[in-house]
Write a structure and sequence with these properties.
With 246 residues, the protein is α/β, with parallel strands linked by helices. 22% of the residues lie in helices and 33% in strands. Strands 4-3-6-1-2-5 form a six-stranded antiparallel sheet. The longest helix has 13 residues. It starts with a strand and ends with a strand.
């Protein structure tokens, strides 16, 4: 049975008008990088709640979440307005199987995300398990605009800490940006352009994690399966581990 913990907002950073990161001070609890909790706000119509992945890594003193504001959403507009000192409810324990323990061994690990789907991967970057298990880690973040390319400082710090082990490949579909690819993720894989830019292969010796909007996941999974990769299931280990983000 899930319990609710009362937390206090310590920061609410707005990346742009419709994207923000919220930090909370809450009673400590254990979780695995890649898992999610529910955030809740009590209103006159009852508690409004929604699941969000933890961006912070296990052991951090603050909880952190990356949120995209949905104009007609019930919760995200309320979260966007929260200020330091405000109260927010957090469910506990954390849930979900989009974790490294569920991913088999491979020659490389591709962390592919669209939009706020990068959140679970940011949590994984702060664990020792990620770096110990895979010699080559490729973080692919597909977004619409340059302003959506969040946490670049954190990613750069990881690249400096683990030289040669992490490749970061942004994809920006609606603006030109130096160093970024511009086509849709499935198309880039199909043509081999993504693999060439990252200087890594996508074969049945690769592991791929997919997190983001359902259409991206469906289309990308189909292309990967065309390359001979298979869905990763507990009863039948494969190459593609999926998190449906909404």
């Amino acid at each position: 049975m899930a319990q609710w913990l009362s937390s206090t907002v310590t920061a609410n950073h707005h990346w742009h008008a419709n994207l923000f990161s919220i930090k909370l001070q809450a009673p400590a609890f254990d979780f695995t990088a890649g898992q999610f909790v529910r955030l809740g706000i009590d209103t006159n119509d009852g508690r409004v709640q929604r699941a969000y992945s933890l961006v912070n890594s296990p052991g951090n003193t603050e909880l952190e979440f990356l949120v995209s504001t949905v104009s007609d959403g019930k919760l995200s507009p309320l979260l966007q307005q929260l200020k330091m000192g405000d109260t927010l409810e957090v469910s506990q324990p954390a849930s979900g199987f989009f974790v490294l323990d569920e991913v088999p061994a491979g020659d490389n690990l591709w962390l592919m995300a669209s939009g706020t789907g990068i959140g679970p991967y940011l949590s994984m970057l702060g664990t020792t398990q990620l770096w110990q298990r895979f010699n080559h880690i490729i973080l692919v973040h597909s977004v619409r605009t340059v302003a959506d390319l969040v946490y670049r400082e954190l990613i750069q710090q990881c690249q400096l800490q683990y030289p040669g082990q992490l490749h970061y490949q942004p994809i920006v579909t609606r603006e030109a940006h130096s160093g970024a690819l511009s086509k849709r993720l499935p198309e880039l894989i199909q043509s081999g352009e993504l693999q060439s830019a990252c200087q890594q292969s996508l074969t049945n010796r690769s592991q791929v994690m997919l997190c983001g909007n359902p259409q991206m996941i469906t289309d990308t999974k189909a292309v990967l399966e065309g390359l001979g990769l298979t869905k990763n299931l507990r009863r039948s280990p494969g190459n593609i581990t999926v998190e449906q983000y909404w």
